[in-house]
Write a structure and sequence with these properties.
mainly alpha, YggX-like, 3 helices, two-stranded antiparallel ribbon, globular
Length: 89
């Protein structure tokens, strides 16, 4: 039987992640409060941010930016920062 969580993003009881996506308290929070579907949505959003802003995973500032945007996307009602040039397809 699949593990379910009350998804912080979608606001419904949904299938949860199989394991924390990264170590630490934030990884635990995501594991306990984010559904597979919401995580999939975030990964798509993260890809857009990485490509549009030309971010490097080696850059600590880029990693910090992505963590902040992830928290906004998954747990907040705030809009995330999108590049001015980005036009959804």
């Amino acid at each position: 039987m699949a593990r379910t969580v009350m998804c912080a993003k979608i606001k419904e009881q949904m299938e949860g992640l199989d394991f924390p996506p990264f170590p630490g308290e934030l990884g635990k929070k995501v594991f306990e409060n984010v559904s597979k579907e919401a995580w999939k949505q975030w990964l798509g959003q993260q890809t857009i941010l990485i490509n549009e802003y030309r971010l490097s995973s080696l850059d600590p500032k880029a990693r910090t930016f992505l963590m902040e945007e992830m928290q906004k996307f998954l747990f907040g009602d705030e809009e995330i920062d999108m590049p001015d040039e980005f036009k959804p397809v």
